[in-house]
Write a structure and sequence with these properties.
The protein is mainly alpha-helical and about 80 residues long. The chain contains three helices and two strands; from the N terminus they run E-H-H-E-H.
Amino acid sequence: MAGRAFIKVNPKQARRFAQAIGRLAKTDSVVAKILARMGVVLDLKLQGIEGEDVHDLMELLTARRAMVKDQITVEPLMSASGV
């Protein structure tokens, strides 16, 4: 994740852009193409993720993965107990 650049896009603006060019997305690949075109047409600028932000995001990702793992472990137990 470190060193990756991104462009922050308002979802409502992205949808309006897609409507304006006559393309409403139904799949991730179509969405990606529309967002790429939006970036070029509107000349959107790349942003970087800086040191402390990367650390915070990695901590959140680690916590999320642990929670998903716990959920996968607990769900069968709860359904077996009738809860």
